[in-house]
Amino acid sequence: MASLSNAHLQVAADPSELASVIICNYNYEKFVGEAISSALNLDWPRVEVIVVDDGSTDRSRTIIESFASRGVKMIFRANRGQASAAEEGYRNSQGKWIVFLDADDTVHPSLIREARAVMRPGWSMIQFQMKLVDETGRFLGSVFPKYNKHTTPEKIRRSLATTASYPTPPASGNLLSRQFLDKIMPLQQDMDRFIDSYFLATAPLLGDVITVRKPLISYRMHGKNDGAQLTLDVARITRDLRKHITRTGYGAELARNFGIEVAPDRWRYGFYNLAMRIASLRLARENHPIQNDTILRCLRDGVVATCSLQGLTPSRHVAMSLWLVCVALAPKRIAHVLVSWRFAPMSRPRFVQRTVQSA
Description:
The protein is about 45% helix and about 15% strand. By secondary structure, it is an alpha/beta fold. A hairpin with a 5-residue loop joins strand 6 and strand 7. Helix 10 runs antiparallel to helix 11, helix 12 (about 295-305) packs antiparallel against helix 13 and helix 13 (about 315-330) runs antiparallel to helix 14 (about 330-345). The radius of gyration is 20 Å and the shape is globular.
């Protein structure tokens, strides 16, 4: 573990507005240097950068150690998974505000300043938009999530409480308060191997989630992402469906510890979960993880979803409802194309991509 520079030691002595960027890396030698550089270039006077290498077997260690002179704190350990690595980084951090930055993503220099401008008492998470970039960092013309301009913490809380869903980015796109994270730490063992499953399922219930409609993170698409797909992988949809159901139950259980009651099966009425359910039933029914689930049951739940707050723009709300019906009823060949457009954004024709971005 490398020592911090004198400048960072002075920062750590006054943690009142210290931001910690925790980068979890596993075999991302091609990208981790750029992620570290972006964290070091944040336009904020008090930043500590912690890199947890989770047992990489490539040249990652050499690249990470090249930043020792810039005060980066380094932890090298055997491979135990990303969530565990993030938790170890958190235990070694001192910041009041935390970013869990994926090693293949980068942050915009103004991210902390933009977050500081909207902070208010009781906030748990500040979420941003992300720019989709390719392996070389070239912008691919897509920004996500598409937030409703009338999004409020109260609407996000209601959406999560009723549908287990709300528009939110993956891990790198969020700044989290230590006050909130202390409520979910230590992490429940083996609930999920990714850190964002723990905080996305709980942040709106245990505090206010504030939305900043600016793309301040670059999300890299390179074919090995655990999130977005370059080409359609139905097995991954099935895996993510199972994961989301588990995550919803975890969120309900943790909320109950704080006197907050939400239904553990509310995932049935979220567009996000419904999209995965219908895709799984149409394209991989033999591996569908929900016993006795049917297309008809999905469509019935879809009626409730259409009448429920989901945090989407009105046009996206309508589009998702129509998409569910079309995938449910279309011939399998057409259903496959529609599912690909939904889960593998780069497979969309240009006119579809333009329509999605303008919605």
